[in-house]
């Protein structure tokens, strides 16, 4: 029972003559009615709906926020204009078991009415217009069905027909209650959307009242979906839901007003440019974006969620990033003041000025390059707006040479570079026929430093790829091509000027087992990308693609321990490597999970920048190249200690992070015992070792 008392202290001049219905927001199963002129004594603060009703007449719903009365106060008189009532009635051909109630929503009329079914055949008065109805089992406190919208008319009742969806379809009703605020009157401010299997579905009906937003979908055939509900002045509601076959899924959510983020711009000369904009992101999702007209003004971003947010200032080729922690829910003001760093120098090769393009990569530019070309004397000069961590030298006709910097360039400096004086050409052929193999992927490992973009270098139609200048020392080439076994070549790169052709003959792979991949709803996983990994959980042994029927022929890979598969409409598949050649192995990919977010921190609570990451899926460990392939991201936390994964399965995921210690990098296998579950969308993980 919710505490409400009826007093017999009748008002002396009551003009209504109607019953007053009062419904507490916290317990919408109960509706209390009082005759005209009676007072309601409320001894619990909260949000209440009320309306007036008489024979053939009804008022719209009013919403009262009650926070208590002072000494001697009597309260509010509830008066409102009444209009002719519309009628709805339950379909007499659809039986409803005893102990149920019907919740009637006036779509667009901001009106809710719960009705006990003591007389189910009797028409029920509602404001004229469209009405949505839900059926509730009061004894089990369970929602049973949502009826299609009917029309309440004064002359003829609209029929409410509760029908459960035919399997495998499901119905979905979402109610998102706003806590601590009242929604705006404009219905256009409330929106809802549902995403399933990569497709967005608009709701069949969406409406709101001052207390919350309501949306319904009928006949959904996916088993999982992500719901997004937004309204002006409050935080958005996002939730992944499971959809039962042949039943209703009722989602009851809560949202609250967000805090305000104020950003003051302090831009150095040279960074400001026309068309500048500032974005606020929650992970990869853009919350708000503003065009910058006055670089001296402050920008206010209301309704910010309680997360670690990212600011992205776009100006020309630059994207300047900063992070701001809004997790305490307080309003916050930050200054965005990127430094201007002037860098210049000379690039030479073989003792002569080099005609190259020099690219500068900063942590804050989201891997977008700012670049400049050397002049005839090999000189370059540029201004950047974040510490430089990586340089890229582009020579005509070769792959890019990436130069990681041991120490970031964070101040004005002069830096000269001497590029190696060598030229290597890789020629890839079929070992059986001698014909060139086009589109083979050539990975380059030069002195143990992976050459970034060079890992994506592919052979041309002649089976050739020209490598960038190589540093003296060790060189390892890894060549992958569909239909061939993986090949590795190791060479020593001398200090002396060298021109050399490296021939790589690929052995055709013997056809192995056949597999067919299906999505969770039974459709073929058309175009799914697949890979085989070694027992170390780090090495990629083979890559391929499923055809339109989800089928793929696997090579005979004696060392492959697991099959990985990724698809835009499914979670990552990790399964044993099929070996049965006599029949096709059919594997169902797991449903697509929500974006996972991990925050790695050191023991003293500081962000663990660039911490290593290893992930387990159904007990199989993934790290380094295999993890990068599976997540399509570097297997490292970012500068703020964050690691995000879009495309993982719903469950069965564990993770561990680690950093360098005084003795060097901690091996992933040495910290396996510190792994933690990662089935929730966001976790904070304290490092296993330092």
Give the key terms.
7 domains; Immunoglobulin-like; six-stranded antiparallel sheet; 690 residues; mainly beta; disordered N terminus
Overall description:
The protein is mostly beta strands and about 700 residues long. The chain folds into seven domains: about 5-85, Immunoglobulin-like (Sandwich); about 165-255, Sandwich (Immunoglobulin-like); about 260-335, Immunoglobulin-like, CATH 2.60.40.10; about 340-420, Immunoglobulin-like (Sandwich), CATH 2.60.40; about 425-505, Carboxypeptidase-like, regulatory domain (Immunoglobulin-like), CATH 2.60.40; about 510-590, Immunoglobulins (Immunoglobulin-like, Sandwich); about 595-685, Immunoglobulin-like, CATH 2.60.40. About 0% of the residues lie in helices and about 50% in strands. It has one helix and 63 strands. The strands form 17 sheets. Strands 2, 3, 5, 6, 7 and 8 form a six-stranded antiparallel beta sheet that branches. Strands 31, 32, 35, 38 and 39 form a five-stranded mixed beta sheet that branches. Strand 28 (about 310-315) and strand 29 (about 320-325) form a beta hairpin. It is globular, with a radius of gyration of 33 Å. Residues about 1-15, about 65-75, about 450-455 and about 660-670 have low confidence and may be disordered.
């Amino acid at each position: 029972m919710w505490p409400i008392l009826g007093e017999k202290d009748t008002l002396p001049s009551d003009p209504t003559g109607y019953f007053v219905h009062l419904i507490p927001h916290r317990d919408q199963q109960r509706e209390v009615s009082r005759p005209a002129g009676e007072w309601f004594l409320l001894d619990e603060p909260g949000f209440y709906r009320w309306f007036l009703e008489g024979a053939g007449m009804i008022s719209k719903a009013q919403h009262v926020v009650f926070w208590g009365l002072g000494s001697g106060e009597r309260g509010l008189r509830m008066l409102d204009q009444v209009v002719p009532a519309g009628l709805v009635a339950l379909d007499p051909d659809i039986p409803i078991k005893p102990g149920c109630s019907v919740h009637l929503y006036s779509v667009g009329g901001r009106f809710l009415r719960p009705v006990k079914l003591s007389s189910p055949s009797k028409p029920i008065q509602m404001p004229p217009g469209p009405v949505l109805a839900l059926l509730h089992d009061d004894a089990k406190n369970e929602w049973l069905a949502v009826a299609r919208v009917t029309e309440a008319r004064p002359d003829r009742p609209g029929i409410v027909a509760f029908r459960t969806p035919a399997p495998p379809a499901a119905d979905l009703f979402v109610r998102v209650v706003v806590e601590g605020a009242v929604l705006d009157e404009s219905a256009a401010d409330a929106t809802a959307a549902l995403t399933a299997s990569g497709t967005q579905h608009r709701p069949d009906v969406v409406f709101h009242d001052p207390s919350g937003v309501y949306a319904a979908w009928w006949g959904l055939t996916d088993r999982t979906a992500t719901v997004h509900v937004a309204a002006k002045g409050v935080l958005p509601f996002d939730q992944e839901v499971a959809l039962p076959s042949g039943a209703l899924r009722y989602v009851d959510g809560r949202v609250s007003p967000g805090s305000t983020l104020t950003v003051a711009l302090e831009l150095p000369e040279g960074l400001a440019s026309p068309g500048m904009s500032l974005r606020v992101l929650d992970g990869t999702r853009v919350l708000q974006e503003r065009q910058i007209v006055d670089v001296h003004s402050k920008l206010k971003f209301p309704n910010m969620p309680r997360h670690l947010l990212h600011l992205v200032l776009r100006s020309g080729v630059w994207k300047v990033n900063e992070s701001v922690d809004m997790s305490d829910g307080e309003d916050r003001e930050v200054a965005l003041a990127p430094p201007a760093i002037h860098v210049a120098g000379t690039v030479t090769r073989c003792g002569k000025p080099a005609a190259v393009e020099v690219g500068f990569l900063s942590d804050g530019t989201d891997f977008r390059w700012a670049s400049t070309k050397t002049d005839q004397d090999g000189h370059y000069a540029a201004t950047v707006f974040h510490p430089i961590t990586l340089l890229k030298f582009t020579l005509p006709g070769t792959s890019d040479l990436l130069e990681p910097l041991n120490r970031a360039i964070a101040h004005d400096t002069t830096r000269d570079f001497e590029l190696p004086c060598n030229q290597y050409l890789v020629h890839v052929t079929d070992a059986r026929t001698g014909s060139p193999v086009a589109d083979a992927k050539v990975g380059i490992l030069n002195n143990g430093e992976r050459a970034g973009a060079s890992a994506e270098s592919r052979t041309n139609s002649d089976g050739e790829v020209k490598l960038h200048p190589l540093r003296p020392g060790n060189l390892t080439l890894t060549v992958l091509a569909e239909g061939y076994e993986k090949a590795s070549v190791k060479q020593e790169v001398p200090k002396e000027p060298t021109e050399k052709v490296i021939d790589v003959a690929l052995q055709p792979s013997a056809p192995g087992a056949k597999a067919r991949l299906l999505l969770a709803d039974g459709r073929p996983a058309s175009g799914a990308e697949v890979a085989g990994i070694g027992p170390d959980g780090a090495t990629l042994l083979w890559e391929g693609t499923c055809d339109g029927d989800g089928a793929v022929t696997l090579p005979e890979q004696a060392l492959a321990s697991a099959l990985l598969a990724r698809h835009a409409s499914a979670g990552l598949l990790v399964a044993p490597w099929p070996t049965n050649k006599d029949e096709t192995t059919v594997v169902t990919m797991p449903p697509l999970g929500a974006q996972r977010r991990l925050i790695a921190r050191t023991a003293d609570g500081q962000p663990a920048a660039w911490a290593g990451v290893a992930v387990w899926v159904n007990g199989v460990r993934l790290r380094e190249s295999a993890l990068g392939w599976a997540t399509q991201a570097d297997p490292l936390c970012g500068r703020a200690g964050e690691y995000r994964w879009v495309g993982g399965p719903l469950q069965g995921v564990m993770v561990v992070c680690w950093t360098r210690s005084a003795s060097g990098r901690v091996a992933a296998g040495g910290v396996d015992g510190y792994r933690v579950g990662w089935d929730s969308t966001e976790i904070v993980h304290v490092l296993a070792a330092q």
